[in-house]
Amino acid sequence: MFYVYILVCSDKTLYTGYTNNLESRIKKHNEGKASKYTRARLPVKLGYYEEYNSKSDAMKRESLIKKMNRNEKIELCNSYKS
């Protein structure tokens, strides 16, 4: 299984990525070992995620989400919390 996710950083910015192990990836982000962007904005928390059967599909969706504006990403996060 592959996951596309949005993290909410401590400064309220958003980070989008993909992984094949969501729990481990979030842990690595919070340890400062996953990305330069989130390393300076700890702690992060999961705002949204989607599951995919293929890496290709996950990467395509990640690209689409990254092209969304902030309000559209926040809407995704809000739908996840509902």
UniProtKB/TrEMBL annotation:
<dbReference type="InterPro" id="IPR035901">
    <property type="entry name" value="GIY-YIG_endonuc_sf"/>
</dbReference>
<dbReference type="Pfam" id="PF01541">
    <property type="entry name" value="GIY-YIG"/>
</dbReference>
<dbReference type="InterPro" id="IPR000305">
    <property type="entry name" value="GIY-YIG_endonuc"/>
</dbReference>
<dbReference type="InterPro" id="IPR050190">
    <property type="entry name" value="UPF0213_domain"/>
</dbReference>
<feature type="domain" description="GIY-YIG">
    <location>
        <begin position="1"/>
        <end position="75"/>
    </location>
</feature>
<protein>
    <recommendedName>
        <fullName>GIY-YIG domain-containing protein</fullName>
    </recommendedName>
</protein>
<comment type="similarity">
    <text>Belongs to the UPF0213 family.</text>
</comment>
